[in-house]
Amino acid sequence: MINKETIQRIMDTARIEEVVGEFVSLKKRGANYIGCCPFHNEKTPSFYVSPSKGIFKCFGCGKSGNVVGFLMEHEHYSYPEALRYLAQKYNIEIEEEQMTEEQKERQTERDGLFHVSEFAQKYFADLLYNDEMGKAIGLSYFHQRGLSDEIIKTFGLGYCLDEWSNFTNHARKNGYSDQALEKTGLTIFKEGGKCFDRFRGRVMFPIYSISGRVLGFSGRILSKDKSSAKYVNSPDSDIYNKSNILYGIYQARNAITRENKCYLVEGNIDVISMHQSGVCNTVASCGTSLTIEQIRIIKRYTPNVTVLYDGDAAGIKAAIRAFDLLFKEGMHVRVVLFPDGDDPDSYAQKYGSTQLQEYLRNNEENFVKFKTQVLLDSVQNDPIRKTEVLKEITNTIALVPDVLERQEYIAQTAFKLRMSEQVLAMEVTKSMAANAQAEFKAEARREQQNSSTPTGTAPVPPPLEPGPEDYENQPITPPIVAPRQVLANENTAEYQERQIVKLLLTYGAKRLMTKYINEDNEEVEMMIPLANIVVEDIMADDLKFDNPTYQQIFDDFSNAVANEDPLPDANHFATHSDNMVRNTALSLMIEPYTISKHWLEKKNIAVPTIETHLYADMDESILSFKLKKVEQRLEENAYNMRETKNEDDMIILISERSQLLEMRQAIGIKLRRVESCKSKS
Length: 681
Known about the structure:
Layout: H1 4-13, H2 16-21, E1 27-29, E2 32-35, E3 47-50, E4 55-58, E5 64-66, H3 67-74, H4 79-89, H5 101-106, H6 109-130, H7 132-144, H8 149-154, E6 158-160, H9 166-173, H10 178-184, E7 187-189, E8 195-197, E9 202-208, E10 214-221, E11 231-233, E12 246-247, H11 249-259, E13 262-265, H12 268-276, E14 282-285, H13 292-299, E15 304-309, H14 313-328, E16 332-337, H15 344-362, E17 365-366, H16 367-379, H17 383-398, H18 403-417, H19 421-451, H20 487-490, H21 494-507, E18 511-517, E19 523-529, H22 530-540, H23 548-563, H24 570-574, H25 579-589, H26 598-601, H27 614-643, H28 647-670
Parallel strand pairs: 13-14, 13-15, 15-16
Antiparallel strand pairs: 1-2, 2-3, 3-4, 4-5, 6-9, 7-8, 9-10, 10-11, 12-14, 16-17, 18-19
């Protein structure tokens, strides 16, 4: 268990922009940071991080929370694991308790998979340096490949002994279950209880998550047994999906952001060799062809990708297959081909890091130009094949989403093919139309599939901020007879309620000078938090919010004021148990748009902010809310007068209407809206 004092120290020390910045490329915008959301695919950034409030909010998908919530959502950490991650990052000491066998058994299945994977990595790495066979076979292999001890340890490389169940027996002795060993793929179980280590006799490449957790392994065999696969990878599990992770992303993420470029290579050794040569912004796909999910991981850090593939025919084909996916996701793509027979690793071994980096700089070219040349070289003078090449190239250019970039590719390709830009542009347009039509048909099929589900329609997620349509069944209690159920939706106080809640969330703790009448009936001035003033004023008239989410936020403040507790802050709402309350509160606390200093510094124009007239804004918000409530009561009153048949009730309703009109007039005068508050004829 982690005590409250340590948790508070972690929360006080952790800087959300630093933590989130390890996973998302953030840019400063006013008081906040903005980037593309890591929780859904988007091309226009809508993911905001507020350092002052310690919270994040995506205005696209609605995800929100504090720094711990981000790690739990993004890295699938448990609450204690997220705290331990932050404690380690900021060098905060936590006294850990050694787990008993019983506690290990109580671990959730997912946690168990993480723990056994991390245990395996440490064991394999230890064998590499402290076991005779590990040193003679595994470490010797890595040294022969030119890898230094430093880079071996940076990537956590290891060795699995060439024995049937050495690792499995060791893991069992340390309390790890057969279920966890089987689900991670570290052990293969056969009928009759027999089992063996999946990676026996292989050098081990651990595969890390973006935050550095071990998800799985890739093992390379060192024997010349042709019946065994050269590489064996962990099977997909609850924690590892080879299509959703990139090899080396944990070690490369900071360099990718710093260089604003990612090098994409084919193999694990290529990645490690590039890092050792000083090209640390390098990753590879994990035993699979490049996927959209992997591209989107890169896109979090940079839109610029340079693909490095072998210069042989297979390498060229692999490069061409990858590029259409990259273009479709809006990436800026370049390519570097190595001389035939070389790859990034062998080139670095031959010529060293300096010449490797120079080769990368001098041989980089845009992919469309590269693809055009490769395809033209294959057709010679065959007009039919040249037409096929033209169609393939136009299909690629059609995938480029940026208009200016697409036009530049058209110009370059037309020159290369010795044809009219207009003709080529027309062909690209046809390809774009065909793509759009295909996407439209695919979307129609998806909608048809959704509509044919047993429930009739697919579930619709709630809106980012609740509106009146969410609460159609909320009852309204009238003075005499029940009004129509839909009455609140016809004259909602949504806007006024939202303004009051936003004031509480943003400036609730701000102290304002307020006049009070003390016990001696004397007028005195006191500095009172804005939240206290708002809560006391609204509760004095016993007013309620139509929107239940706004009412819950208001209740959190009113309870704090009544009990003289600290006012709810960003962390309170970031960890709120009600998802709607959390999303709504954090949406209102983070302001996507801020006033640029340019107006004041460059143009000498002072733009007033809400802080400069906070008391007036608070007063106007409360009065506007009260006015809307009076207007709602007037509509209820008018409806009841039309519906009632009882003379006594009519007399009460007429008296009530007179009082409501007087109240509306008084509030209108204070708001300087007298003309809009005249009695209806």
